[in-house]
Amino acid sequence: MKASDTSLKSATGTSQRYIPTQDRQFQSRVALTTALVLPTLNAGSQFPKWLQGLKAQSYQPDTILLIDSSSNDNTVDIARSAGFETYTIRRSDFSHGGTRQMAVELLDSSDVILFMTQDAFLADKDSLANLIKVFTDSKVGAAYGRQLPREKANPIEAHARLFNYPSVSEVRDAGDIPKYGIKTSFISNSFAGWRRKALLEVGGFPRHTIQNEDAYAASKLIQAGWKIAYCADATVYHSHNYSIIQEFKRYFDIGVFHARDPWIRRMFGKAEGEGMRFVKSELHYLSTHQVELVPSALLRTGMKLIGYKLGTFENRLPVSIKRKLSMNKTYWKQD
Predict the structure, then answer these.
(1) For the chain, which end, N or C, has fewer CB atoms within 10 Å of the first or last residue's CB respectively?
(2) Beta-strand runs (E) in the chain
């Protein structure tokens, strides 16, 4: 899609082009054409709050594209009223990698493509500006921001965000693999930016993965000599209060991801080492914040490990069982 186009061809018709209203001085200094992509499904009553966070930003993307998985609420209508490009797909056609790659292909005039999720709320007026500015380094292929725990996050939920998203920014490349291992290519499309040229150079987002399309693409970038930037001053509120069963299913899918793309573990090392570091940090955090949650945390750890291990052996399981164990059930229509 050309930056000057007035609309996207959409399954639901055409829409108005997003027209930024904020000051453009920062944009001219960065000199990059940007787009923001938001996949949605029934964004509901929280969508206006998400839009308020975007409107308050000191930096505004040139284009905003909403890809909706056939919501049965007013998500698309709200987006169109805000001037977004909209594109509707069948709910059964959504995939973490394939849907985002479709956006990358549509936005053919964008230098940098930002991805967010409907439950990640911009926390500061300069969040987008701070994420975009790292792309002035021509070696940065992708960047991601800091995810802060939501207001009502419990200590287990809060620790997960504080562990994975520290307060210090850094830039990682292949030379950091001995130090960071599999964490070298860590990234999250809940709030991330990708240099389109670099992403296409490594094949784009994978269509075959169950999830972790972001980690897959970031691993390819590291392999190709690009850098991944973590921007601690680009913040969103985003966390989940998963049940123990949901944790099991999530880690089953992570195990499937690693089993089907074993080159990632060969290149960066196994995930178990990072997992042990997380457990030690979590137990220390809970002991000083809410010690009575330690038994629950230990049970969760056990279920995560079982789920992950089962996922790595998924080729021995029938599809009917895998569908029950998985958080991404529609994925298994491929088998």
Answers:
(1) C
(2) 34-40, 63-68, 85-88, 112-116, 121-122, 140-148, 170-172, 191-195, 227-237
pLDDT digits over 38-96, tens only? Answer: 999 999 889 999 999 999 999 999 999 999 999 999 999 999 999 999 999 999 999 99
Instruction: From 333, 62, 106, 27, select the one nearest 210 (Cα to Cα).
Output: 333
- Interior angle at CA 151, CA 146 and CA 152, nearest 5: 125
Candidates 3.90.1150.200, 3.30.70.20, 3.20.20.30, 3.90.550.10; CATH matching 25-237: 3.90.550.10
Q: Find tokens 């960066």 and name the residue.
A: 268
Q: Are 105 and 127 in contact (CB under 8 A)?
A: no
Beta carbons of 131 and 143 less than 8 angstroms apart: yes
| Residue 62 DSSP one-character state | S
How many CA atoms lie within 13 Å of 238's alpha carbon, on the beta-carbon side? 22
Give the single-character DSSP code of 73. S
